[in-house]
Amino acid sequence: MTTRELLRTLGGECIEKVRADIALEKRIKNTSESYIDKPVEDWPELEFRWDFFVESQRFAFDGMSPNDAKALETETYDLICGFVSLEQFDRKLCARSSKSKQEFWSIGDKGKLAYLIVYLSEKRPVTPPYIVPLENGEILIEGGNHRYAVAKQWDLSQLPIYVSRKHKKAIEQLLDIEWTDG
Questions:
Q1: Coil, helix or strand for 164?
Q2: DSSP E strand boundaries for 27-170
Q3: What does the pLDDT average to over 39-61?
Q4: 51: which DSSP letter?
């Protein structure tokens, strides 16, 4: 058993699933390397299959383990989902989260971006980004910067987002949002 397998099984996952996930990740990573630095015209066809299942919400936080995900069930997170115009969303992002189309390959992890391109081309599900409001009237992406960047590059008009219920009113002050729940 590798260290990675051990850590994930200690985190509550079964070894067979961990090994299957690792094999899938390796295959996608190998395929994705050919897309690094390629313009969007050279990408495969992408399909954003947004995953709204409660049990998948942990993936909105970029690598949260199943055990850590128990915090999602508390008032700390209590996630709600809504749709927002990507253009409006983009205008409200803080500098740390914002990225122009021209900066796509120059800011962030090229490997993660290319991986996501292949992942989406295989019609695999992804969770919406998780955002928080800032006191200065801007928005920070706490999880899902690469998902946002690929969605923007692909010219999606609407973006689903996760928000903690405690931030709902603050987000409504910043964005025209159509809530799917709560």
A1: strand
A2: 49-50, 79-85, 125-126, 130-133, 139-143, 158-164
A3: 87
A4: -
Considering the chain, what percentage of its residues have pLDDT values greater than 70? 90
DSSP 129: P
pLDDT top residue among 133 and 6 = 133
Position 10 scores a pLDDT of: 86
Non-local (6+) Cβ contacts of 18 within 8 A are 4, 5, 8, 9
Other C-beta atoms closer than 10 Å to the C-beta of 131 total 29
Percent of the chain with pLDDT over 90: 73
Residues 152, 48, 177: CA angle, nearest 5 degrees = 65
Confidence of residue 72 (pLDDT cuts 50, 70, 90): low
Give burial (CB, 10 Å; 0-12/13-18/19+) of 159: buried
CA separation for the pair 113, 19 (Å, rounded): 23
Please name the residue that has the structure tokens 């949002």: 177
Read off the tokens for 168: 């709902």
Give the torsion sign (CA, 127, 128, 129, 133): negative
Q: Which residue in 116, 115, 114 sits closest to 129, CA to CA?
A: 116
The model's pTM: 0.86
